[in-house]
Amino acid sequence: MNARVTDYDVLRVFCAPNGGYGNELGVVRDGSVLPERDARQEFAAKLGFSETVFVDDPERGVIDIYTPTLRLPFAGHPCVGTAWLLDVPELVTAAGVVGARLDGEFSWIEARPEWAPPRTLRQYPTAAEVDALPVPPQGEWVYAWAWEDEAAGRVRARAFPGRDDGIDEDEATGAAALLLTDRLGRALNIRQGKGSQLLTAPQPEGWVEVGGRVVLERRPER
């Protein structure tokens, strides 16, 4: 494996107002150091983040997304984080072109619900019940949620990927938030995981915006 591949940024995406929490993301800015899918998959598994992004064209925003075990045509927190890092108006994913914008402290993407991988959206009566959930058995990707304040659109959520890759719970998942927003048809303020915050809003013609704060955890050593 090319030694240059150690050059990758680590971001935290969908951070809390104080900059804490968020879901870690690895971004290899020069995807040409690992052009083959098998090598990218191996590297994503080595890093162990819920997702790793390889940037194939930083000016056009062409990206390739991997979990530790599979390639994803689209994923939410990788797109939000990479759009912030590259400061581009759009990202080109295998699923389609994702709109992107920065608005103050928030990085936003606009995507289509049908691009998101399948998730089971499971509602619970109270946020306390979501807090108390154990990690479910593997095999089903579950987004557990409950209203904290329905009138205000505030949601408590936890995400369980159900995969055998060492990630029992995702701290923040934009694709699942996108699906929930599409189902409910309203803007949401989601508190997920230990303290991450995701904001969403339905858009015309079936699009959905997902946004959050992004923090640069570390840059590559030079």
Automatic annotation (TrEMBL):
A Pfam entry, by short name: PhzC-PhzF
One MF annotation (Gene Ontology) recorded for this entry: catalytic activity
Entry protein name: PhzF family phenazine biosynthesis protein
Domain of life where this protein originates: Bacteria
Organism: Streptomyces brasiliensis
